[in-house]
Amino acid sequence: MSVHLSAASKRAASYPARGPEWSTSFSFQTVTGIGHEAGVNRRDPSSILRIDDLYYVWYTRSEGPSSWRKPGYDPAQRIFSWDMAEIWYASSPDGYDWTEQGCAVDRGEAGAYDSRTVCTPDVMHHDGRFYLVYQAATEPYGGSEETVGMAVAESVDGPWEKTPEPILRPMKGGEWFGDPDNYNKGHFRGLNHDPMLLFFKGKYHLYYKCGSSHHPGKPNEKYAGRDTRWGVAISDNPTGPYDHSPYNPVTNSGHETLLWPYKDGLAALLNRDGPERDTVQYTTDGVNFEPMGTAWNTPWAGGACRCEDTDAHPLKGIEWGLGHIDEGGSEWNYIVRFDADPHNSSTCPSYYPRKL
Fold it and tell me: Which of residues 24 and 172 earns the better pLDDT score?
């Protein structure tokens, strides 16, 4: 008897081994100290570090409204909530009640690579030093030529010393399947947004959000959500130089980067954008990711607590953390706490709340 296999069945036959332990949903709670505050934007929280008896987080902070490039906007004024921003930090004994500690990294002087804004930070604690990576832009704000900056400190409270030049600039050229007339396959470029730094298999892996040069950030009718994916750059030293992987982009989906170590590889949550959005994926080489599970109600701009025992469970590395909520058409942002609930992965919770 002949065997009839649909395209879906053929794909399923090639899937990696997976189980329900790779799937989860998320719930959200308000926090104090860095939550909702009129006139203040707090967004893009970093990974969370536990140092001694306190948790620490770094995030984008700005004050006042933004134009969001509305008709007649003034490019000399704040365009987005992450424009003309600073990186601040806060501490907490329990992950719920936070105390804002002040500015960690400010914008650079006129002419510096980060003179316009410093935003979307992430942090790595390695060999006794702290490495803060962040998205940077100079005047004028172009929206596509942001670089990745770095600041280094010996203490969690700073002071932070910036590298004199960016550690990563946008990837130039490249082809996304080589068809410039196809929106989904056009000329590839790196955006260098949402950097995340990890020490993995003896090298430093700097992940970032990237996209194509065809209508970046616009709704994509053929792909689900916006046309974003991830790239990676690798170095032998934490401060660089970093080389873009020739395999970029290394995902076809995902908005903000969120990765954590699991056994001999890295797990990742790809949220919001792309055909494989809201999936948990896994790589053993830092480049080739495979879908392993699904996620519901995923956090926006999630930064998870970097706990030590991430080998205990595939989702241990995103057990809890912080994300942000966009309010008023992304004009106002504030930080909330998320908690993963793997036991609730088979049900569909409410949509991600717009306001708590």
Answer: 24
